[in-house]
Design brief:
alpha/beta; 12 helices; 10 strands; globular
């Protein structure tokens, strides 16, 4: 599975459809702090030694290492690259195509996967693997997953500390954003065409996902009109009609064809393609942002860093402390 497919699977409800018009509805707001969501009893296996844990998602792997459970990780997917120590772990396939034989050889006492991997969970349950499903589709879900893993793996203290640390980072960003006087419209782009100096189409984040929440939390408004969900394919003409104030592009999510180009070629193509839409407000006012950090496509415990990048791009007029 290539990176584009992975991105579509990582963020649930991906539906590739032509976009005519869609308006933004907020799912989560940050008016100071997000209330923690307690893990439900159904999420956790009744018993688990949590000595040999297999992670089936990069975001889950990051949670495990953040809770000082790296030595308990018995296997990861081929997409789990952070932290670096995870790369040395045995691999059990991909996000939607794990190698069940490799899983059986590892003899895990706990397999952690995402809630949207529902079909996979049925298969693994039939094979007798103890499972823990977590929600990484939302900010509260990520926070709840930290508590759930901490509870199951007896890292309650570490989980509580990490939760508080992430909450403090969110609150710090929210405090700065209180000074914002307007909410610009934002288009989040995760892929676009290659082999052309003109932008012809792009995949953009719809109204119901993780990126939409980040835009809202960063005091922006998703430029897409109400109605469609997931990721959507939109034409250059559609972008012209929507006329976003800000365009945020996560370059790590760009499809495999982009990976065949050198970084210089990718940069030149991006500049030329967006320049082919000079009437768009974001292009006209030099507010097209390209973020290449790996964490931009992983809804895990590094999500406050994504939120800060979004907030800085949407509200550059505010006072931000740069790392």
């Amino acid at each position: 599975m290539d990176r584009q497919q992975f991105i579509r699977k990582t963020f649930p409800c991906f539906q590739v459809r032509a976009l005519l018009a869609i308006l933004f509805l907020a799912l989560v707001t940050l008016s100071g702090c997000i209330q923690p969501v307690r893990p439900s009893a159904r999420q956790a296996p009744l018993t688990s030694a949590c000595q040999r844990v297999v992670s089936l998602s990069p975001s889950i792997t990051e949670v495990l290492y953040a809770l000082d459970l790296g030595d308990r990780v018995a296997g990861v997917t081929r997409y789990c690259k952070y932290p670096k120590a995870a790369q040395a772990k045995p691999q059990v396939g991909g996000y939607v195509d794990p190698d069940t034989e490799a899983l059986l050889r590892l003899q895990p006492d706990l397999v952690i996967l995402r809630e949207e991997q529902i079909q996979l969970s049925h298969q693994l349950k039939a094979l007798g693997f103890p499972l823990l499903a977590v929600d990484h589709q939302t900010v509260p879900g990520i926070l709840a997953s930290i508590e759930a893993v901490g509870q199951v793996c007896h890292r309650e203290t570490q989980a509580r500390a990490l939760h508080q640390q992430l909450q403090a980072q969110i609150n710090q960003i929210a405090a700065i954003l209180k000074q914002a006087t307007r909410r610009p419209t934002v288009l989040v782009v995760l892929d676009r065409n290659v082999q052309s100096e003109k932008l012809k189409w792009a995949f953009v984040a719809g109204e119901d996902g993780f990126y939409n929440q980040l835009v809202e939390n960063a005091e922006g408004r998703n430029v897409l009109p109400k109605g469609k969900k997931g990721f959507l394919q939109i034409s250059a003409e559609g972008i012209l009609r929507l006329n976003p104030d800000v365009i945020i592009e996560t370059t790590e999510s760009l499809g495999p064809a982009h990976g065949t180009l050198s970084q210089a070629q990718q940069n030149a193509m991006a500049e030329a393609q967006w320049r082919s839409l000079p009437q768009v407000s974001a292009v006209k006012h030099h507010r097209v942002y390209h973020f290449g950090q790996d964490y931009m496509v992983i809804p895990g415990p590094r999500f406050p860093q994504i939120l800060k990048r979004f907030a800085e791009a949407i509200h550059p007029e505010l006072h931000w402390e740069h790392e």
